[in-house]
Amino acid sequence: MKADKPAIILLSGGLDSATVLAIANEDGFACHALSFRYGQRHQNEVDAAVKVANAIGVATHIVTCIDLNVWGGSALTDDIDVPKGGIQDGIPVTYVPARNTIFLSHALGYAEAIGARDIFIGVNAVDYAGYPDCRGEFIEAFENLANLATKAGTLGDGFKIHAPLLHMTKVDIIRRGLQLGVDYDLTQSCYDPIQNSGQPCGQCDACLLRNAAFAEIETVKYQGS
Questions:
Q1: What is the pTM of this model?
Q2: Residue 1 lies in a domain
């Protein structure tokens, strides 16, 4: 039984990380959620992470601060326009330099400190193929690093990086979350929420992928499939 086995869950407040938290809970882990104020231009996702953690249930939830806008280099942390109106080819300008490496490094330190050996992250290589830190090769490499660079790893008490959404489509992710009771109305995916209201822009890559997936699910339901 894993009921008392701790795990660190990287929780951004988006639908992917909400689904991962629900999966880890379903698998019986005691979930310790970790979210970041990392210098992103919009704080809505942090507010969403708090709501998601409260709704799904966690053992603890830490929101910590790191300042990635010191060097910028991304439309999410710098004075760069978020592209609108179509999915971008290649590595998009919304890529934040080394973000998942930085987030996983924090999660690794947290895990070793509290005796957790399982870390969950909501990366997805199907819909987000342009992001180099959302690939299976990256997850495998970081797991190897974790077990080389820590006291626990060198003593044979190794870490496992779980990426349960890695090869799922956005539709499959949402369906899995709905099976687990995730309330996606609490989540925030938009890269450029409307100022003051916080409502999604509806035109950035994240909004387009999310809206298309929900539209496909609704179409299938309407057809009775």
A1: 0.94
A2: no
